[in-house]
Write a structure and sequence with these properties.
Its cofactor is Mg(2+); Mn(2+). InterPro entries: Aldolase_TIM, NAPRTase_C, NAPRTase_N, Nic_PRibTrfase-Fam, Nic_PRibTrfase_pncB, Nicotinate_pribotase-like_C. It is an enzyme of class 6 (ligase). One of its GO terms (molecular function) is glycosyltransferase activity. There is one protein chain. Helices cover 38% and strands 17% of the residues. By secondary structure, the protein is α/β, with parallel strands linked by helices. The chain has two domains: 315 residues, nicotinate phosphoribosyltransferase (Alpha-Beta Barrel), CATH 3.20.140.10; 166 residues, TIM Barrel (Alpha-Beta Barrel). The strands form seven sheets. It has a six-stranded antiparallel beta sheet with strand order 17-16-2-6-4-23. A six-stranded parallel beta sheet has the order 8-7-15-14-13-12. Strand 13, helix 13 and strand 14 form a beta-alpha-beta unit. Bound molecules: adenosine-5'-triphosphate, 1-O-pyrophosphono-5-O-phosphono-alpha-D-ribofuranose, nicotinic acid (NIO) and magnesium ion. Magnesium ion binds next to loops. The site of magnesium ion has 2 residues, from loops.
Length: 559
């Protein structure tokens, strides 16, 4: 069943900054320690010191070598509306009873007009260590933003990546439907999953609220309960169905279907496939067809796919064809999907041939039931006839990996670069307010991402750039880019006279994501042992990181 996405029409060229989708996203949606630190900064008169933080992740999810960046629009919607209410202040006062009144007056006056957010465009393919967001502003305010920003980006990017990975395995020609609402982690999980799976390459969702909120196309079939709620075709009261062209009315559609069912039963080429079909299922299919003759799709696995569901569906679809309607197809929700889809296709083709109904063999076969990347891959290897996959639990819960692990790290304060050291080199932060570039090669693929200091010259097309691994001295390469793209663009503030990037409509973000995924070199995308994409720093930044590292790391003493 298709419903026109009405929300899309409402989308304007310039996205209005009305606030985040979820009204629970307020300045209190942060960790307590952000407030205790804000108070300590305030007490130390440090709260207005200008700090730069990078938001990034350290490892790509799902054992892959790429990530889809999502959640940016919600971050911008959040800071554009960042303001404590009197109720918030009262609550904070009661939670932090030992803080001086002046601190709450300070909080009362905070907004994000002096915060700057530079970000990679939403829907981009991104890699570890590269800042997705660079947030600059008074340290106390920027710290308050840490938790909501990480929260808004973490799951969004994880589930968009999961969706992109499912799309990659399914292939471009398949229709992918997100069916996860009932299994998602709460209402926000469900709404977010629908939004970000769409960005990652799903075609539609069953989630009606997400359709309304974001203009995502809605799709759906029907459930087993609908099939098993019927007892027999005798239950059907209004049996009439108008021809598709409106020229006449068939007064007894039930009899027409039963006639077709008998014809199918007597057909030599289908002989032996089935005997008597389940009559309650037949009644359910007829009822559904009478309600949706233009969009008839039947769930065929309630009793027995090949002995009942498929022949019953075909009888109804043939009766519809008599009246000028084209049925959509079937959904399989259990059993061996490869085998059953192939058998169902053979049956449809046999009907097309036997009864000379052109196009009957192309009936859409939708499959669902605990599908994931692995089952899609297994189906591809076995061969199957599924056109459309409905995917819920594994997709929206990100069953294969629970979190992306985004972090928010201080890289500069009062123009002084800061570093965070760790025993684990992968956890050492990359200091400085930075610029980031993607360098493209001759064949159009991105070759490497490079971070430089803010004031270093921009790498230029056709000029050799030394790209260094940030921590491994021996790993370096000269790159002569064909094209250079600056990754971080200004998304906030809105009114500082600086050109600000517009937030794109969801469909455009999705298209951007599809283009980004398409332009990647296949070795980074394959599921088994993908090649890591190179993330590097300039020679100057490399030297600076290591200088700062030596400065900050205490020298050990052996005795
Ligand atoms: N040909 C196939 N190759 C690999 N996996 C498949 C194939 N067909 C189905 N699957 C997967 O196998 C699992 C079948 O699960 P299970 O046996 O629990 O379901 P079922 O008994 O067929 O259906 P029900 O949901 O009614 O219990 C599902 O995860 C499904 O996606
Ligand atoms: O399997 P998922 O990927 O989560 O996709 C959504 C599932 O939700 C529906 O049924 P539900 O699972 O509620 O009932 P069922 O298991 O009895 O089919 C549908 O039939 C799918 O099987
Ligand atoms: O429309 C469907 O078929 C559907 C929707 C949600 C979950 N399972 C199936
Ligand atoms: Mg199920």
């Amino acid at each position: 069943m298709e419903a026109e996405a009405s929300g899309l029409k409402k989308q304007q060229l310039h996205t209005k900054l009305n606030g985040p989708t979820n009204s629970m996203v307020t300045p209190l949606l942060t960790d307590l320690y952000q407030f205790t630190m804000a108070y300590a900064y305030w007490k130390a008169r440090k709260h207005l010191e200008r700090a730069v933080f990078d938001l990034f992740f350290r490892r790509n999810p799902f054992g892959g070598e790429y990530t889809v960046f999502a959640g940016l629009e919600e971050c911008v919607q959040f800071i554009a509306n960042f303001k404590f209410t009197e109720e918030d202040i009262l609550y904070l006062r009661s939670s932090l009873p030992n803080c001086e009144d002046g601190f709450f007056d300070y909080l009362r006056g905070i907004n994000c007009s002096d915060v700057e957010v530079y970000a990679i465009s939403e829907g981009s393919v991104v890699f570890p260590k590269i800042p997705l967001l660079r947030v600059e502003g008074p340290i106390a305010v920027v710290q308050l933003l840490e938790t909501p920003f990480v929260n808004l980006i973490n799951y969004a990017s994880l589930v968009a990546t999961n969706a992109a990975r499912h799309r990659f395995v399914a292939g471009k020609s398949k229709v992918l439907l997100e069916f996860g609402l009932r299994r998602a982690q709460g209402p926000d999980g469900g709404i977010s999953a629908s939004k970000y799976c769409y960005i990652g390459g799903f075609d539609a969702t069953s989630n009606v609220a997400a359709g309304q909120l974001f203009g995502i196309p809605l799709r759906g079939t029907h459930s087993h309960a609908f099939v098993s709620s019927f007892m027999s075709p005798n239950e059907i009261i209004d049996k009439s169905l108008c021809r598709n062209d409106g020229s006449s009315t068939c007064e007894d559609f039930v009899s027409l279907v039963q006639t077709w069912l008998r014809k199918i039963q007597w057909t030599h080429s289908l002989h032996g496939v089935f005997g008597e079909t389940n009559q309650s299922e037949l009644a359910a299919f007829i009822s559904y067809a009478l309600s949706f003759p233009q969009n008839f799709l039947a769930l065929v696995d309630t009793y027995d796919v090949m002995r009942s569901g498929v022949p019953n569906f075909c009888a109804v679809a043939l009766a519809l064809a008599d009246l000028g309607y084209k049925a959509i197809g079937i959904r399989l929700d259990s059993g061996d999907i490869a085998y059953l889809s192939i058998e169902a296709r053979k049956f449809f083709c046999a009907i097309e041939k036997e009864f000379e109904v052109p196009g009957f063999g192309n009936m859409t076969i939708t499959a669902s039931n605990d599908l994931n990347e692995e089952t899609l891959d297994a189906l591809n290897k076995q061969g199957h006839e599924v056109d459309s996959f409905g995917i819920g639990t594994y997709l929206v819960t990100c069953y294969a990996q629970a979190a992306l692990g985004c972090v928010f790290k201080l890289v500069e304060i009062n123009n002084l670069p800061r570093i965070k050291l760790s025993e684990d080199v992968s956890k050492v932060s990359i200091p400085c307010k930075k610029r980031c570039y993607r360098l493209y090669g001759r064949e159009g693929y991105p070759l490497v991402d490079i971070m430089t200091g803010e004031n270093e010259p921009r790498p230029k097309a056709a000029e050799r750039v030394l790209c260094r691994h940030p921590f491994n001295e021996s790993k370096r390469a000269y790159v002569v880019p064909q094209r250079v793209e600056e990754l971080l663009k200004c998304y906030w503030p809105g009114d500082s006279g600086k050109a600000r990037e517009e937030l794109s409509p969801l469909k455009e973000i999705r298209n951007h994501c599809m283009r980004q995924l398409d332009q990647m070199q296949p070795d980074h995308m394959r599921r088994l042992n993908p090649t890591p994409y190179k993330v590097s720093v300039s020679a100057k930044l490399y030297d600076f990181i290591h200088l700062l590292w030596l400065n900050e790391a205490p020298v050990g003493e052996l005795q």
